[in-house]
Design brief:
EC number: 2.4.2.22
Largest sheet: 6 strands, mixed
Pathway: Purine metabolism; XMP biosynthesis via salvage pathway; XMP from xanthine: step 1/1
Strand content: 25-35%
Subcellular location: Cytoplasm
CATH architecture: 3-Layer(aba) Sandwich
Protein name: Xanthine phosphoribosyltransferase
Helix content: 25-40%
Order of helices and strands: HEEHEHEEEEHEHEE
Shape: globular
Bound molecules: guanosine-5',3'-tetraphosphate
GO molecular function: xanthine phosphoribosyltransferase activity
Distance between the termini: 11 Å
Length: 190
């Protein structure tokens, strides 16, 4: 998606060999106009799949996911990383190991919000090692729902997440695909 690539070139900062900082439009400050366009793009890519629900993980997946859900006219559910007072005890959970933070998060979805047979679209901000998407896949399976695909805002093709999802036969659509970081610059995949 040209618009997103341009925004990454303009505002992204490369940290070390493998991290892109995009906190002025996606990971901290959020650009709602851009998120609406990303959401619309996801909706167009998956509309034919008759999605019932959009699922993401807090926090940075929420903005693109809610706009995709708005466009598809379905609810958006975000997996929580922390138990909250309002969360019931009847949950689906999965462990997600973060390579970036070197810690394991439990992601949690209340059973009331994911039903057997529902056609679910996963959305996330980054696809790096694929752990977050894998955790969401486990939850969809536990709910006997049907995973239709995964929409990713920024995929880093040089990390192992994409291969993992391809092996699992998941339909993945990424709006920007980064092949490498070279001399502090982003190199996009074709
Ligand atoms: P994975 O989900 O693909 O397995 O990725 P990984 O464990 O490597 O990443 C852990 C966290 O770091 C995730 O966010 C992921 O979205 C984010 N991340 C991965 N690569 C990059 C990157 O190049 N740049 C940025 N900015 N983030 C990256 P999280 O911990 O769930 O954070 P948040 O959603 O609460 O913001």
């Amino acid at each position: 998606m040209k618009l997103l690539e341009e925004r990454i070139q303009q505002d992204g900062r490369v940290l070390g060999d493998d991290v892109l900082k995009v906190d002025n439009f996606l990971n901290h400050q959020v650009d709602p106009q851009l998120m609406a366009q990303l959401g619309h793009e996801f909706a167009e890519l998956f509309r034919a799949e008759k999605i019932d629900k959009v699922l993401t993980v807090e926090s940075s997946g929420i903005a693109p996911a809610v706009f995709a859900a708005l466009d598809l006219d379905v609810p958006m559910v975000f997996a929580r990383k922390k138990k909250s007072l309002t969360l019931s005890a009847d949950n689906y959970t999965a462990d997600v190991f973060s390579f970036t933070k070197q810690e394991t998060n439990h992601i949690i979805v209340d059973k009331r919000f994911l039903n057997a047979g529902e056609r679910v679209l996963l959305i996330d901000d980054f696809l790096a090692n694929g752990q977050a998407v894998q955790g969401m896949m486990e939850i969809v399976e536990a709910a006997d729902a049907e995973l239709v695909g995964a929409g990713i805002v920024i995929e880093k093709t040089f990390q192992k997440g994409r291969a993992l999802l391809d092996e699992a036969g998941i339909h993945v659509e990424s709006l920007a695909r980064i092949a490498a970081f070279e001399d502090g610059q982003v190199v996009f995949a074709d």
